């Protein structure tokens, strides 16, 4: 998020002095690290949680279309940066990887069939294929069928235009371009405090971790892009807009295989249905991952709990974030989300064999010796105080900005980095409203559909999808 915003601002105001302060020794070592996330270019092509079934049995595709539109904005922005030379060859961070949904059981098959019917004629989902035929599904993803009972009802959808994104590589490349164009990156600098000055600027207190040297800088605008740690930093700023917000941290683990023979038989990201009470980020999936040119398979994530807001955070993060203004919403969320608590307890008590059994629901012939455990990234879900409902746990992202636009931050996790570009455009609109008219021509160069939608017509969708796919060297 920070790399995306810094790049956008540098494109819009090349004379501005823009700096990134990073607590760790390099960028993309936390949530953007490729092994801390699934690397899915989230476009709702396969994620079933974006298409819930209504009470009347119909499928709601509203959120799926919204998420896909957001990802198309990111694709347009990346294509622009590739054309401008700010990003190198897109294969350095992007790979074509088909996206599949896969379900079993009569009720789930009926659901997926209705989902396919609801999406197939939409311009953003053109080309989606559906099958209940075992032979066809085996051609799409060979690992899913051998060892499965032939009597079991199964179904799958397939989108060739899916992508696997190395968000770690993308972040580093964005920051490299930012530095080449005059930006500054200061690593191993921890923000210790934020204070609003009388002239409207912010005084930021920092500590250089090498030698523990204290220092401070002043800025007219501050973006807090600290992942899970954004909440406590925004609390330090004391802006009234952060009142009522809390965070619920969820950790996770993967099973990973690097066996070339196994990896060669699975080129897809295959998503299933979540367990009852499971948060959206815990939807099970068997994924192809390509990191530094090397392909692996990940399965998971298995949810867990840690009070840390970052993998490299403190055990006191959760408790330190509790304030008088957010304790009631946090307690209300705990009382109202018993299914989530039950799910997390079950995940924490699960043995390695239990986790392998979950893998075998996707890949029946999986052998435990071929897979090893990896700890995924830490996520902090947003808890906010709704005036009518009280404490609400939400699974998206939330931009929190001061009324004067001088400071803003991003809370939440899903769908994460895939939507960095549209979220940062939203932030620009909220924090720099007086500059948007002058910036709009340049923004439209970066994102041609800015102000509209890719799916406003089949012709627009066809043109935009084709143009970005050609630049990014991925499937259309």
UniProtKB/TrEMBL annotation:
Q: Which pathway does it take part in?
A: Carbohydrate metabolism; tricarboxylic acid cycle; oxaloacetate from (S)-malate (quinone route): step 1/1
- Name this protein carries in UniProt: Probable malate:quinone oxidoreductase
Stretches that traverse the bilayer: none
| Reaction catalysis annotation | (S)-malate + a quinone = a quinol + oxaloacetate
Presence of keyword Lyase: no
NCBIfam families (alphabetical):
mal_quin_oxido (TIGR01320), PRK05257.1-1 (NF003603), PRK05257.1-4 (NF003605), PRK05257.2-1 (NF003606), PRK05257.2-5 (NF003609), PRK05257.3-1 (NF003610), PRK05257.3-2 (NF003611), PRK13339.1 (NF009875)
EC no.?
A: 1.1.5.4
Which Pfam families would you find in this protein's record?
Mqo
The molecular function terms in GO held by this entry are: (S)-2-hydroxyglutarate dehydrogenase activity; L-malate dehydrogenase (quinone) activity
Keyword Nuclease belongs to the record: no
What cofactors does this protein use? FAD
Assigned keywords, A-Z = FAD, Flavoprotein, Oxidoreductase, Tricarboxylic acid cycle
Family listed = Belongs to the MQO family.
> Which GO biological process categories is it annotated with?
tricarboxylic acid cycle
């Amino acid at each position: 998020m920070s790399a995306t915003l810094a790049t956008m601002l540098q494109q819009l105001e090349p004379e501005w002095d823009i700096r990134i302060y990073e607590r760790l020794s390099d960028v993309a070592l936390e949530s953007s690290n490729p092994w801390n996330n699934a690397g899915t270019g989230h476009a709702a092509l396969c994620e079933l949680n974006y298409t819930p079934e209504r009470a009347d049995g119909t499928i709601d595709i509203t959120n799926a279309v919204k998420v896909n539109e957001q990802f198309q904005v990111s694709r347009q922005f990346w294509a622009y940066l590739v054309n401008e030379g700010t990003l190198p060859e897109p294969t350095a961070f992007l790979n074509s990887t088909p996206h599949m949904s896969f379900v079993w059981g009569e009720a789930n098959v009926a659901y997926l069939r209705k989902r396919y019917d609801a999406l197939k004629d939409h311009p953003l989902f053109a080309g989606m294929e559906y099958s209940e035929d075992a032979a066809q599904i085996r051609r799409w993803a060979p690992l899913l069928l051998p060892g499965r009972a032939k009597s079991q009802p199964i179904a799958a959808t397939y989108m060739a235009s899916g992508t696997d994104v190395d968000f770690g590589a993308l972040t580093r490349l964005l920051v490299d371009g930012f530095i080449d164009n005059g930006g500054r990156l200061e690593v191993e600098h921890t923000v210790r405090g934020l204070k609003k000055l009388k002239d409207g600027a912010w005084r930021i207190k920092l500590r250089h971790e090498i030698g523990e040297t204290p220092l401070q800088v002043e800025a007219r605008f501050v973006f807090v892009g600290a992942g899970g740690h954004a909440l406590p930093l925004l609390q330090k700023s004391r802006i009234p807009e952060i009142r009522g917000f809390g965070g619920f941290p969820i950790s996770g683990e993967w099973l990973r295989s690097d066996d070339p023979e196994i990896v060669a038989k699975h080129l897809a990201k295959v998503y299933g249905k979540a367990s009852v009470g499971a948060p959206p980020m815990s939807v099970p999936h068997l994924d192809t991952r390509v990191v530094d040119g090397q392909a692996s398979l990940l399965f998971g994530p298995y949810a867990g709990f840690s009070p840390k807001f970052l993998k490299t955070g403190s055990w006191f993060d959760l408790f330190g974030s509790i304030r008088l203004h957010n304790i009631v919403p946090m307690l209300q969320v705990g009382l109202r989300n018993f299914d989530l608590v039950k799910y997390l307890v079950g995940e924490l008590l699960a043995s390695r064999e239990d986790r392998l059994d979950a893998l075998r629901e996707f890949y029946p012939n999986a052998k435990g010796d071929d897979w090893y455990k990896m700890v995924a990234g830490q996520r902090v879900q947003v808890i906010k105080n709704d005036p009518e409902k009280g404490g609400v746990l939400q699974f998206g992202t939330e931009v929190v900005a001061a009324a004067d636009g001088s400071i803003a931050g991003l809370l939440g996790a899903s769908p994460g980095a895939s939507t960095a570009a549209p979220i940062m455009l939203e932030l620009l609109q909220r924090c720099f409203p007086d500059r948007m008219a002058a910036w709009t021509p340049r923004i439209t160069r970066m994102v041609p559909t800015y102000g509209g939608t890719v799916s406003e017509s089949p012709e627009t969708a066809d043109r935009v999808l084709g143009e970005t796919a050609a630049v990014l060297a991925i499937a259309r």
